[in-house]
Design a protein that fits this description.
6-stranded antiparallel β-barrel; 9 helices; 24 strands; alpha+beta; OB fold (Dihydrolipoamide Acetyltransferase, E2P); 5-stranded antiparallel β-sheet; 571 residues
Length: 571
C-alpha cells in the first residue's frame, strides 16, 4: 500500500515537471500575429497600372507630302459639335504656298502633254488610214496580176500552177519562197487541151487554125498546079496560066511556112515569155503585198508606241496635277466627327514635336486625336510572367486615381502579340505587353489620360485552403508555415498552389482552422538577414512573402516560379 502511494506521488511529480517545462518553453516564444487558415473562393488576379483612353479614337494625320508648317490651329480641348461637323469647321490649316507654286508649273506641263497626246492620236489615226490604203492597193495589184495570169493561161491551169508553187496566198513569213518560178517549162502547156479558156489558148488555137488553113490552101494550090501542068503539056493552057498557078502555089507554100513559123515561135518564145511574165508579176505583187503589210505593221507600231508614250506622259502629268490639287485641299483639315480635340496622340509623355502654330510637321505625323468619350478603356502593361494567363474576355476591376472610391468593371479586349516597343528601348530587360480593357457602361467623369489601376481576374478557385502570402516562408530550400499549436509553434512543410496579391493556396500540410504565424518566430537579426538573402531581399526590407514556391502541376513535375510581394506590381 505504501509502495503504491509512493508510485502515485512520483508520477504526479513527473507530470507536474513536464507541464512546467512545456509552459516555460512556450513562454520563450515571442508573441506574434497569426492568421487562421480557411477554405473559400479564391480569386487569382493580376494587378497592373495604366491610363484611361477612349475605346475608339480618330487620329488625324498630316497627309501633305514632305514637311509643312501649321498656320492656324484650333485650341486643345475644344468640343466639336454636330453643327461644327455640318459646317465643316476648320481644325488645322497648313501652309500651301509651295504647293500652289508647284501647281502652276504643273499646269503648264499638263497642257503640253495634252497637246502632244492629241497630236499622237491624230498621227495614229492617219497612219491607220494610210496603212489601210497601202494594203488595199497592194491587194488590188495582186488581184489584177492574178486576173491577167488567169486571163492568159486560164483559171484551171493558173490555179494548178499557183497551187504547185504555193502562191495561192501571200507568204508573209517567207516572201522569197517563190524565187524558183523561173525554172518552170511552160512549153509543156502549149496545147489547147491543157490550157484553159484564156488568151493563150485562143492565140494558140488561132495559130493552129491559120496553119491548118494554110495547109489546105497549099493543097488546093498544089492540085491546081498539077492540073495546069497536065493541061499545059497537052497545050490546053498557055504558059502564062502555068506561071500564074506556080506563083499561087509558091505563095500558099510561103503562107503555110509562115503560119507554121508563127505557131512554133509562139509556142517556143511568146507563150512561155508571157506566161512567165504574168506569173512573175503576180509573184511580185504578192511580195509587195507582204512588204506593204509589214511596213504597215512597222509604221503602226511606231505610231502606237508614240501614242502610248504620249498617253503615259499625259497620264503622269494629269496624276501629278490631281495630286497637287488634292495636297492643297489636304492643307485644310476640317472636323470629321464630334468629340474633344486632343493634340497629337493624346499622350503627354514622350512627345518630341509640339503641336502649335508655326510648328513644322511631317507626313503621317499625328496632329490631332478625337476620342469617342462615350465608351472608354484602360490600357495597362502586363508583365511577361503573367501575360500567358491573361485572355480576352476575362473580367477586371478598375480604380481611377482621381476617384479612388469608385470601382469600375471591365473586360479584357486585346493583348499585344509583341512586347511594348517603347519600354523595350527604355528598359531592355523589362518585357511588358500592352493590354486593352474595355470599361463597362458609360462613365461621364472619365477623361482620356487619367491614371488607373486594373485588377484582372484570371481564375476563381472554389473552396481553396488559403493563408496570407506572408505566412509562407522558405527554410533550407523548403516551403514551410509556422503553425501555432497548444504546445507552441512548429514549422510545417506545405505544398502551395496558386496565389494572388494577398493570399496563397495551401494544397497539403495545413487544415482549415489552424493558426499560422505571419512571420518566422525566434528570428535573430542574423537569421532574418539569412532568410531575406535566401529570398533575394535586402536587410532593410520586411520579409512578407517567400521569393519562390514549388507546386505540383499534377503530372509529377514541379514548377518553381517567382511570386510577387504584397503590394508589388509587375511593370
Amino acid at each position: 500500500m505504501i509502495a503504491w502511494l509512493a508510485l502515485i506521488v512520483l508520477v504526479g511529480i513527473a507530470v507536474a515537471g513536464a507541464v512546467g517545462y512545456l509552459r516555460e518553453s512556450a513562454q520563450d516564444v515571442p508573441a506574434g500575429a497569426t492568421f487562421t487558415a480557411f477554405k473559400g473562393p479564391m480569386e487569382i488576379t493580376v494587378l497592373e497600372g495604366g491610363s484611361i483612353e477612349a475605346k475608339d479614337s480618330l487620329q488625324i494625320q498630316s497627309e501633305v507630302q514632305g514637311t509643312t508648317r501649321i498656320l492656324t490651329l484650333i485650341e486643345e480641348g475644344y468640343l466639336i459639335t454636330p453643327e461644327d461637323v455640318e459646317k465643316g469647321l476648320v481644325l488645322i490649316e497648313l501652309d500651301s504656298k509651295e504647293l500652289v507654286d508647284r501647281q502652276l508649273a504643273q499646269e503648264l506641263d499638263y497642257q503640253s502633254s495634252l497637246a502632244a497626246l492629241t497630236e499622237a492620236n491624230e498621227e495614229y489615226a492617219i497612219q491607220l488610214n494610210q496603212n489601210e490604203s497601202d494594203i488595199k492597193t497592194a491587194e488590188l495589184a495582186v488581184h489584177f496580176a492574178r486576173m491577167d495570169l488567169e486571163k492568159y493561161l486560164g483559171v484551171q491551169l493558173s490555179e494548178k500552177l499557183l497551187g504547185e508553187l504555193g502562191l495561192l496566198e501571200p507568204d508573209e513569213e517567207n516572201p522569197e519562197a517563190t524565187k524558183n518560178v523561173v525554172a518552170i517549162d511552160f512549153s509543156q502547156y502549149a496545147d489547147p487541151d491543157k490550157l484553159g479558156d484564156g488568151e493563150a489558148r485562143q492565140k494558140l488555137r488561132q495559130l493552129e487554125d491559120d496553119l491548118e488553113l494554110a495547109n489546105q490552101d497549099l493543097g488546093l494550090a498544089e492540085n491546081k498546079l498539077e492540073g495546069t501542068k497536065r493541061l499545059f503539056e497537052r497545050e490546053f493552057v498557055m504558059k502564062t496560066q502555068l506561071d500564074t498557078d506556080e506563083s499561087g502555089y509558091n505563095r500558099k507554100l510561103i503562107a503555110r511556112q509562115s503560119a507554121e513559123t508563127n505557131r512554133d515561135l509562139y509556142i517556143k518564145y511568146e507563150f512561155p515569155k508571157m506566161a512567165q511574165k504574168l506569173l512573175s508579176d503576180y509573184e511580185e505583187c504578192l511580195r509587195k503585198l507582204v512588204r506593204a503589210k509589214k511596213l504597215a505593221n512597222s509604221k503602226i507600231a511606231q505610231s502606237e508606241a508614240k501614242k502610248n508614250s504620249a498617253e503615259a506622259r499625259h497620264e503622269l502629268q494629269s496624276r501629278k496635277r490631281d495630286e497637287l490639287k488634292t495636297q492643297i485641299e489636304k492643307c485644310t483639315i476640317r472636323a470629321p466627327r464630334t468629340g474633344m480635340v486632343v493634340y497629337g496622340t493624346g499622350e503627354q509623355s514622350y512627345r518630341n514635336d509640339p503641336i502649335e502654330e508655326g510648328a513644322t510637321v511631317r507626313e503621317r505625323q499625328v496632329l490631332l486625336t478625337i476620342p469617342d468619350t462615350s465608351v472608354m478603356a484602360v490600357r495597362v502593361q502586363v508583365h511577361e510572367s503573367f501575360v500567358k494567363k491573361v485572355r480576352p474576355g476575362q473580367k477586371s476591376r478598375i480604380r481611377v486615381d482621381a476617384y479612388p472610391n469608385q470601382q469600375l468593371t471591365g473586360v479584357v479586349h486585346r493583348i499585344a502579340v509583341l512586347p511594348d516597343s517603347q519600354n523595350r528601348w527604355l528598359s531592355p530587360d523589362l518585357k511588358v505587353y500592352s493590354t486593352v480593357i474595355h470599361i463597362d457602361g458609360e462613365i461621364d467623369w472619365l477623361k482620356p489620360g487619367m491614371s488607373a489601376e486594373a485588377e484582372i481576374i484570371i481564375e476563381v478557385i472554389d473552396n481553396a485552403l488559403q493563408v496570407p502570402v506572408n505566412a509562407v516562408h522558405i527554410v533550407d530550400g523548403n516551403t514551410v508555415c509556422y503553425v501555432s499549436t497548444l504546445f507552441g509553434t512548429e514549422p510545417r512543410p506545405v505544398k502551395t498552389g496558386e496565389y494572388n496579391i494577398s493570399f496563397i493556396e495551401i494544397k497539403e500540410g495545413l487544415e482549415p482552422g489552424e493558426s499560422v504565424l505571419l512571420r518566422a518566430p525566434n528570428a535573430t537579426g542574423e537569421q532574418q538577414e539569412g532568410e531575406k538573402a535566401s529570398r533575394g531581399e535586402s536587410a532593410e526590407e520586411k520579409p512578407e512573402t517567400p521569393a519562390e514556391e514549388t507546386s505540383d502541376d499534377g503530372g509529377g513535375d514541379k514548377e518553381t516560379r517567382k511570386r510577387p510581394r504584397r503590394g508589388d506590381r509587375a511593370e
